[in-house]
Specification:
Largest sheet: 2 strands, parallel
Number of helices: 88
Strand content: under 5%
Oligomer: single chain
InterPro entries: ARM-type_fold (IPR016024)
Amino acid sequence: MELSDALQPCQLLLLSSYGVYARFRDSLGESPSDRVDAINDLLIDRITTQALPATLYAIWLPIAIRHNPQLLQAALQNKTSACIRGTAIKAISRLFHGPKWKTEGWDTLGGVDGLASIFEAASVSEVRALAKAISRCRFSQDDGRRSDCVEALLQRLSQGSARPLFVALSPLYALCSGPFVRDVVSNLPDTLAVKPLLKRVAPLHPDLLRQMAVGRVPAPWHVRLSILETCQTALVGSATPYSSVRESVPAGLMPGMAFVLDLCHVLAEDSALRRDFHELDVYIRHVLRGAARHHIPFDRIIPFFTSIVQYPSCIFLRSSLESAVARELLRCWSLVTAGKSSPDISFFMKGIAHPDHPSHPRPEHRLGLESALTDLLRRHQDRRLLSKRRDSSFSATQDLLLDVSRPARRRFLEYLVGLSDGLCYDPIYEKTPFTFDPQANPPRPRERQLVPVWHYDVLRMLPAADAQVIFERMLVIHGCKGFVPTANGLDHSQQCRLKAQWEAEGTGVFLSLKKHAERQRDATERSSASRAALQVAFDTYDLDLCREAVSWTRRFIRDPVVFPDIMSKAILRGDNAYLSCVDMPSSRLPEDMATLRATVKSAHEVLSALLETILLALCEPVDHRSFTKDISSFLRGLVAARIRGMSRYRRAGIGSEADIVDALLMPLVSILIAWERTSDSPEGFSTGDEEEPSTDKEDEAATNQENNGIIYSEKEGWTDDSGFLHYLELPTECPPAVLRFFDEYARRRNDLHRAQRIKIFPDVADMDEGWPQGLQFQCLLPSRPWFAFALEHSDIAPYMAGRIRGVLEASPSGVFVPQPDHDEIVDDDHVDSFPVALCALLDMHHTKRAKTDAVRALWDTYQSRKDAYGKYFPVLRDFLVDLLEEELLFEAASLVRPPRLAQATSYLPSTNPTALQAWDPASSVHEEARAAVDELSNLKERRLATNLLYYQLQGELDSENHISSYEAPFAHLKNRHWAWPKLRFERALAGSHIVRKMSFSAREATIVSALLYLELVMHDLHAEETPTDAQSRESSPLAAPFPDADTVRYPAIYLKEDFVEVAWDDIGKAMERCIDVLRASMQAVPTKMVSTLMDKVLDALEVLERPHGVFKVVLKTTFALIQALVLSDSPGLAVGPVLRVIGSFPSESAYHRRMKLLSLCRRLPPDSVGTFLDSFSAFVCKKLVEQQRRDPGKQEAPRVTPKTNAPDYVKITTVKMLAQLLAQADFLPLDTTVRILGDTFHSTHHIDIRTEIVKAALNLFDRVHGSAAGLDRLFAFIKSIAHEIAQEPSEMDSAGDISTWTTALPNVSSVKERPELQILIEAQAKLPATLHAKYVQEILLPFVETSENVHNVWMGAFLAPLGLSRAKLGIPSFGPFDPYLIDTILFKWSTYLPARYLLDEHNKWALTHAHHWQAYATIGNTLATTNPEYRQTNAGQHWEEFVTRLHETDPISTLFPLLREDALLAPHVADGITRKTVVFEFACRTLQLARDPAQYFPKTGKMRVTLDPLISALKQLRAFRITKEDIGAESRRARYIVTDEALRSVVDYVKSLRRMTDHKPLVLPTPFELDVLVLPSPVYIPDAEREDRLTQFVEAVVGVVSSCVGSLALVLEFAALESVVDEVIAEDIVRVVELLNASRAQPQLGSLERGLIVKLAQRLLNRLSDDEVLLCQELRPLVDGWRKDEDESVSRIGWGVCVD
């Protein structure tokens, strides 16, 4: 066969994928090398003419490159088909994944030179895909060649490529060498591209990223954080060796463990990292999980625990005992101590819990774990364990005990108490850890004061014996017997419950509480007491006592408050352990089968007593619902508990699963049936006011129970048809033997309801087989999983399995039985559900293949009965398909009903392809579909044949897998005969599956039918009736064969009227489906036909007006087709329609974003995308200039141009879209991008457009990473637009010529209307770190200077009409237009600013109002006098905003943010701002306040003499010096020294002012105030230990008091000294009091000084609680001395302190 004939479309497109592959292989013949080029050329030619879809090349290329590898490079450089290039990239991906990537891939493509040329010609999307394909060589062993090749390629591309392709090439950077990667990563900007790049780098360079994460290798801050956030697996799990340089890290650890310890060290030192990184717990869990996974011996794990607890508590984000290391340490210790892990187990513990696991902790590790535990409890005191907050401490204790196994909890509790400051810790315990002795008598004072009563919830978590020991300890502490005093958390009833749980005096306690409840007169108290009595009885697990307690509740039946309360909160509560016979203490747990049966029998006697009690209550005129509403949950919980307990008895070995079910569950059947019989009384009615003879209520209840439970009640039943066990979940590992209970219970329930229904409706007994006489089967089991479980174990549950199988396998004669005469029977939903039965069949299989096989077997059964089903067969089939698709079983659904898609065989091969013929795509399914529609019409309109099958198909499962009723069972059958699968909403997954599985024949027919239909709609858009064959013929784009008569892909055809009639009912929905199908198959769609269709759609849209009915449909179609073209094999064809839409439909700018222009630009070749964006920008700039010229005052011209003419405007949204597109322009050379942005920027003054352009320019820095020329070009552009922005008073309007300002003052933008300036100031995150200093020097500082100069000119024009000028007023400068600009730049760029900016520029601005307030007041007064309405003008509003900012400016407080900036310790520029510079400036400004002690008050407009600003500044400086902020040690030391020096220099200068004779300030602080401010810190002094620090502080305090004893200031300003003393932290209060008291013995002190010292000590003691004072025994002699003092004031203070 000739090649041309073998590759004819009419033959290839009718084959399967394998058939096409075989045709290609056969075409190669015996000499493939000779024919491969000819076949390739012919195939590419026909793909180019679109005679064949480009998707066929994916089958051909793998065959071709085996014989001619050079075809791969040719395919990559193909200029006509994006699909061919994509296929070549996929082939490259396969080649580079293998070990021969260098010879078969790299060298074949021409090495560095060949790949560089390919990358240069490729679109950006192809560059990215090709880079990912090449990066697959990372899976091969690297011998050095890989990094050399990739680095050479990247260097070549960075030097030769005009496009910024850094992000697109990022997959290749991970393949480079360590130094290369370090240079790249160290200079990454703060963008979204950072994290994906790091994820790729991490597996190949974990050690480098580890070094960067801990700061050993320099990296930007955002890079360090990104490494820690995104590279956890590589940092911790990599086996690459890691060596720590710190001695505190033990040798021999896993690399991940060593890294985590280094990270902890860095966190302890770096407060900024602690502020921004909060994932340490994740790292700890990860490293421990890795240790268990790699079977690391515990000998190598325990050094990790002992090391990590040595770090300070600040590294833990939450409470230290909630940290991951604390919890895992406790679990390991528990495993060693008790031999078992805690109930709350982690993945790490799951791995090591088994004794045979290599990482399992052994007994020899116990000492090491206890040592680590000791360090943990002592070094990391949990803030919740505070003596003042008992509730929180007990809550914390409960949380900790959950991590410890039950036998070890008391031991841990002793550790916790003995080693926690907030509990019983005493310094003596440091010498002998773990010496807490619960037997010590008398108890230690700290124990007596801090833990007098333990919370009930804590004691309940302990074993009974341990809880008793602690309880007896409480009795010793309180000196009581029997019960401790009632306290919060342990009241009398809770103590009784504990005793009952310990099997101690349970009966006696119950009788006592019962009598107490009976004596209560108040209903609330009576209810509480009776509940307590019942709880005590239940806690004993003595079932005889429980039965007695339940019977005792009958005395409260007539109490409307107590009885419902007892039932809902005590008896029917969720915890029914006393009846489960499972959750019992070990001492009461049955040990053999006979004991178990006896226990169950006793429990059921309690249930019977409970039922009798409820029956008695139902006879009373009370709200029955108040105590019956919990019955279902009570019984459901009881059954669940017994199912759960089967495993416990099975492990105990008392019998087999079947024996346990017989003893534990089967007796429940009769109990549940009795309860349900009582609930579902069919004859329940109310006797109303009828008088009944008085009878004994117990006899009445017994009679009711004998009479099938028929009682007389006006209330509703306790349950519905679903039963008591509805919603009961299937346990994960449920024994199949349990099904015996459920099967028997289902059978008994069905019999019960059958009898009740027959009693109401006698005709039920005569119903045909198939109609349930009892309950429908879906109500007989709790939930959906149980049905599958029963069907899977049909031998154990024969009744339920038979009911389910009966529905699925019913014969047609059985399901066609008619509806019974009584509608009530059917309306009551008593019909078995087919959907539930089918779901049970599916759920019993666990794989899709098994489910599909089960459906195949079932469907074979239905097909064998096809004739018997008749017209109902397609209905049944479609319904079955619908259910299978809802279960996402698309393969099974296709098996039942193959997709109803047209086939190309219906028009190919054509005997006369040039003759125009009618074609019906759905001809093969019309007949069958119409029958189904007719049957549907019969069912819905005439209600004929409403038989059993009709009702069985109504049953449905809701989203929670429970039974509900489907209101419209056949609604899903509508429109299932369309030729195009639905790809949206509820059928999206099914439709996508169909599209993926389409054959070539079906795909071609579907594509051409969609194209023909869309062409027909556009041609007959205004037709009110279905188009005829003539109209369809006229509109067909296939009047001649496509693409030509020699290679026929589509013959001359048009849509037949029969098909159009069906699809014309809903044009909008039909067009949506057509578009979705085209988009899903766009690589195979002939783009020439789509382009022609696109032109017709746009023509139709130009004619339509917006209110037209189909305008919205056509508009959506327009943009959907553009999207499809963007994704097609020829994306360049979308350029024309895009430009036409932008130019012809500017009012639809909201839809313009739907064209996905970014995807289009990244899919276009470089030359095409440049031409497209030049045209786009030229149109935009032209329209903007025209709009600006027509009306400069308006931002947008009105839309008055008729749509039939070319619009003369462009929407701002469209222009912004262009700028946002260019912001991501890695598809253009940078020069082109900058040129377009500049042209657009200068074409308009619209603030939104210019803002987007500034954003776009800054975002481009992400793209030009690594290109010095690109960075310089982009920096120059930003510099130019920043200079232009600085020259304009307003960002919204052009200011015009400065010479005209005296006649027409230009508008000034307010601070909130300067988004361009705001973006420029906050550009630091967008710029590379290497440009920060240059940006400040060349852009920001000149911006301030330019804006200041222009503002001075503007202010001159503003003041001239007032007769004022800047020279006359004496104001050197008014600063920039934005009054916040100078401050903002200082705070944002402090580390890059020169010191002169702070000392000169900012100093001048901050003090301008203080120096020239009179001049500013003069301007304000003159304005108010000359033009009282000046505030209504733009100039007046600017003045008000400007002067308001001046009033708000505090020259001192603006410096404090800089003082806190640790980065100022090492500025990034020479002669930059350091902390010393800031402190010096602070001192200068403070001195200015001291010389001029005045403050401006805006309300009065005057300056007032006051010392408040000066004193406040000095107090802030002192507070900053002794900051409690979480900073590093070196930073804290440097801050203290510099700040203390500045504080003392200011104080000395202020003191020197007092000695001045000329120009002396009006007021000055007193010497006492100044001396107090420079007192040493009681919190921190460099190089001073705790004792030295406190001694220095006390000596200085005493010295200040003694030196000022003769001054009145000591009395008037004593509060200042008290505020300084308040700085003492809580841990040092007692020691400072002792030192203060010792200082009173100094002979030079008088009685006044000694009294004031005692007053300071009293102030400190007042901060302690009474309990804390009592615990400090060293305070007793001190206070005794005060009490005996001769001074009455001191004595009174002493008696006010409680030390005894």
